[in-house]
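Subject: design request, 182 residues
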């Protein structure tokens, strides 16, 4: 078997990747036509491709998404056509200041999760803020708008400015998605 990828996973996410009685792991293996090995001592997950390298890459992305805080149901969306997974490093915007990293995470999440909810709703994406990263799952058009909104927040733009950007571009986003479906 050929290795599709290996990742060190936060300790509390290993059990999520395995799932109840191995259900999540089995589903990823079946949908991705892969074999998954989990080293619980080192919290490392390795994905091996059986045949199709593209399916194996998608399976590895699902594992990464779960490791970055997404629930398995949302992560499985990555097996659908045109879906993507990206990770944005918050560290790039902090100059090593951990207090600043905490502030930036708070800006993205917002009070009671409101900012994250608004970005998800207006772009049709899913967002997870975990550790020093922000991860996004969405189709390749929506993910661009979501990434831009998050980058604006990380750069210090006001929430109102970000919301205006998203509302202004919501129509264009819908039009681009319709255009792609033809």
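Subject: RE: design request

Done. Sequence follows.
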């Amino acid at each position: 078997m050929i290795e599709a990828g290996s990742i060190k996973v936060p300790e509390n996410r290993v059990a999520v990747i395995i799932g109840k009685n191995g259900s999540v792991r089995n589903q990823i293996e079946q949908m991705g036509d892969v074999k998954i090995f989990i080293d619980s001592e080192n919290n490392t997950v390795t994905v091996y491709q059986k045949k199709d390298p593209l399916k194996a890459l998608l399976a590895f992305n699902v594992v990464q998404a779960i490791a970055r805080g997404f629930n398995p149901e949302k992560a499985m969306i990555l097996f659908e056509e045109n879906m993507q997974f990206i990770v944005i490093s918050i560290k790039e915007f902090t100059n090593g200041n951990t207090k600043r990293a905490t502030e930036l995470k708070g800006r993205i999440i917002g009070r009671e999760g409101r900012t994250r909810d608004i970005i998800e709703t207006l772009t049709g994406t899913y967002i997870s803020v975990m550790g020093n990263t922000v991860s996004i799952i969405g189709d390749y058009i929506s993910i661009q708008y979501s990434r831009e909104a998050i980058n604006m927040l990380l750069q210090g733009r006001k929430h109102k400015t970000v919301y205006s950007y998203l509302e202004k571009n919501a129509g264009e986003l819908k039009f681009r998605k319709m255009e792609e479906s033809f």
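Residues 18 and 25 are 5 Å apart (CA to CA).
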